[in-house]
Write a structure and sequence with these properties.
Number of helices: 9
Distance between the termini: 19 Å
Number of strands: 10
Number of domains: 2
Radius of gyration: 23 Å
Strand order of the largest sheet: 5-4-6-7
Order of helices and strands: HEEHEHEEHEEEEEHHHHH
Largest sheet: 4 strands, antiparallel
Structural class: alpha+beta
Shape: elongated
Strand content: 15-25%
Helix content: 40-55%
């Protein structure tokens, strides 16, 4: 079940590339799930569909994809305009974000969800002392936008026992409060003493929740990368495909909805990771194509191919490192 869940996200990502390649009239040679040795394949009219041994990714191989190869066929990827190429490349991460919205919406619609509206205020808590009330809509914490309960909790937990500034909306007016979270030994985290209003949304509200939750997860993911670059993330907090499958398995044991929620979270991670402007990633291509569209200048194709080649080698080395780390020093959860 865990492996299937992870595969669904990869298939969705590659399906985005595949669909837009077809829309733009590009011939697709291979659609692969996984990397490494081939386990199984089916030959379609012009596309070979493959399943490979290592469940660590996938790819769509398009005719004329190597820009250093000159072909005259109008169905070759290399002969498409920069804008057409951009729509094909960007479609993978966009598909992952769409999947995240759908999965979050399904979970929220079926079991309901917490909101950024305060339901109760604990007596003698920092929230009560500061003046927060039931019905207050939390809009910002320390200047950062809050659209979900997770946004709020993340800012409080990260802030620990430092003073935080909260902006809330009450009866049409915006109010600002200053308070300091207190450590709760029972829950082993810092809290301010409020609970969230829980709702069972209709269809439109479910979609809105899916969009907000996806946006919240994107912000948290970039926040994680920020902490990573600052050296504030431990090696034990970082995992690879083995950790993902293990966590997915744990989520599956807790029910389909928990697994769906984790898949939503993971789908956002895949989207964000793929838009990093690094050679061989979708983000590297997106950066290059945007540069060509804005400047109107064509970057030397041989140089692009060389940079992508070495970028791919670095990525493979990084994936091998993370895989070994997953085996030798797995995430503890």
């Amino acid at each position: 079940m865990a492996l299937l869940a992870f595969s669904v996200l990869i298939i969705g990502h590659e399906l985005g590339h595949f669909i837009m390649a077809k829309v733009n009239g590009v011939k697709v040679l291979e659609f692969s799930l996984g990397m490494g040795p081939k386990l199984f394949s089916v030959k379609g009219k012009e596309t070979e569909y493959l399943i490979k041994a290592l469940p660590i990714g996938g790819y769509v191989k398009m005719y004329g994809e190597e820009d250093d190869v000159q072909v005259v066929d109008p169905r070759a990827f290399s002969n498409k305009t920069s804008f057409q190429k951009l729509t094909i490349v960007a479609a993978g991460p966009i598909m992952n974000l769409i999947m995240a919205v759908i999965f979050f919406a399904l979970v929220g619609g079926i079991r309901g969800h917490a909101t950024n509206v305060i339901d109760t205020v604990v007596a003698d808590s920092p929230a009560m002392v500061a003046g927060l009330q039931t019905g207050d809509v939390i809009q910002e914490v320390n200047g950062k936008m809050v659209t979900t309960w997770e946004d709020f909790l993340n800012e409080v937990i990260v802030g620990e026992d430092n003073q935080i500034n909260m902006k809330v909306k009450r009866d049409g007016s915006e109010l600002v409060f200053q308070l300091t979270p207190q450590y709760n030994a029972q829950e082993d985290r810092y809290l301010i003493g409020v609970s969230s209003k829980y709702v069972k949304p209709n269809f439109v509200q479910s979609i809105s929740y899916g969009v907000n939750q996806t946006g919240s997860t994107i912000r948290q993911t970039f926040g994680f990368f920020g902490q990573l670059f600052k050296g504030k993330v431990k090696a034990d907090d970082v995992g690879g495909p083995i950790s993902i499958i293990k966590i997915s398995g744990r989520a599956a044991q807790q029910g389909v909805l928990t697994l769906l929620f984790f898949m939503s979270f993971l789908s956002v991670q895949l989207a964000v990771f793929n838009i990093i402007p690094f050679p061989a990633l979708d983000g590297g291509w997106i950066f290059l194509l945007l540069f060509q569209i804005i400047t109107g200048k064509e970057v030397d194709k041989e140089k692009v191919a060389t940079v992508n080649y070495y970028g791919f080698l670095i990525l493979m080395g990084l994936m091998a490192f993370v895989l070994i780390k997953d085996i030798v020093n797995p995430i503890k959860f």
